[in-house]
Amino acid sequence: MIEIDGITKSYDGNVVVNDVSMTIEPRTVTVIVGTSGSGKTTLLRMINRLVEPTAGTIRLDGEDNRSMPGFELRRRIGYAIQGHGLFPHRTVAQNIATVPVLLGWDKARIDAKVAELLTLFQLDPAAFASRFPHELSGGQQQRVGVARALAAEPNVLLMDEPFGALDPIIRAKAQANLLAIQRVLGTTIVLVTHDMDEAFHLAHKIAVMDKGALVQYGKPAELVKDPATEFVQTLIGTSERPFRLLSIDTAANAVEPGAADGQPVMETVSQRDALSELLWSGRAALPVAAADGRILGRVTLEGLTRRAAKPQ
Q1: Pairing status of strand 14-24 against strand 29-33
Q2: 233 vs 92, which has greater pLDDT?
Q3: CA-based nearest residue to 121, from 102, 158, 149, 100
Q4: Which of 13, 209, 212, 304 has the fewest Cβ atoms within 10 Å of its own Cβ atom?
Q5: Helices (H), ranges, 97-159
Q6: Helix (H, G, I), strand (E, B) or coil at 236
Q7: pLDDT digits over 117-155, tens only?
Q8: Helices 301-309 and 271-281: angle between axes, nearest 10 degrees
Q9: Nearest 5°: phi and psi at 194?
């Protein structure tokens, strides 16, 4: 658990983060959003003390993050940034091993962790461990950057615009990969982005920053259904609001009785994805399947359109 209590940061009298308080639950993904200059990156960096607060306290599982030297704290917290930040003259394996080496892990443990993470990120250790960053694609470099951040088995992973430099297709794959890894490892992730689609796709909860202040903090559905300020409403987007409503719930919760022809959609896909499939295929209904293949019913174009128009 991360408790941010009355955190303020000023530079020469200019307040960039203003009395922010929020609690981040363990094993969740929290996304901090806001326009440029809203204070979101500064807030993130105060968690691992890359930036020291002017006032307030941040506690990790009840422990003040100032109770140890900053370099020790940062070895306990994963940190991944846009553009991956890999060391160009170190191999993939050496990059991933950076913090475990600093922590004094033995070679066998380090080698096992490197192999485990490369496998987890779908990079064959035999093929990738000895490569250098310039020999990797942008998406592969980003995966190695996140693997390095997770190598010392941190409970917390901080991410600052981690996918901003990737093209849309690779970016979507990287996001899906991150969610899968988070479910496996149970890591608490705090991620900064300016991309609301990314926020709604990844977050259990979203924190909206505006001019240094936290203006709303809640589940994606809460922001869509009840935006706290005009700024939050603008950030969500009036025209995008119907699709936001569909992106935060699954097809399972929109199932209607009845049959439909064609390839079923899985119950776990978002209602937005189900609607997209209906529109692209030009059909009025699609069957919905459970993980074991059972057909649960159907989703319809009419039903999903009605849900988009009115919060459930």
Answers
A1: unpaired
A2: 92
A3: 149
A4: 13
A5: 98-102, 107-120, 125-128, 138-150
A6: helix
A7: 899 888 899 999 999 999 998 888 888 988 898 888 888
A8: 130
A9: -105, 0
How much of the chain is helix, strand and coil, in % rounded to 5? 40, 25, 35
Q: How do strand 265-266 and strand 285-289 relate by DSSP bridges?
A: parallel
Looking at the DSSP assignment, which residues form a beta bridge with residue 218?
206
CA–chain centroid gap for 81, Å, is 12
Question: CA neighbours within 13 Å on the CB side: how many for 19?
Answer: 1
Residue-averaged pLDDT of the chain: 88
Residue located via tokens 């978002």: 270
The b-or-e profile of 145-155 (16+ CB within 10 A means b, else e) is bbbbbbbbebb
Retrieve residue 11's tokens. Answer: 């530079």
DSSP string, 263-303: SPEETTSBHHHHHHHHHHHT-SEEEEE-TTS-EEEEEEHHH
- 286-293, Cβ contacts within 8 angstroms, sequence gap of 24 or more: 286/260, 286/262, 287/259, 287/260, 287/261, 287/262, 288/251, 288/252, 288/255, 288/264, 289/264, 289/265, 290/266, 291/266, 291/267
pLDDT for 310 equals 61
Q: Please give the span between the terminal C-alpha atoms of the chain, in angstroms, as a whole number.
A: 30
CA distance 54 to 70: 16
Q: How many CB atoms lie within 10 A of CB 186?
A: 10
Residue 250 to residue 140: CA distance in whole angstroms: 30
Please state the separation of Cα 91 from the chain's center in Å. Answer: 26
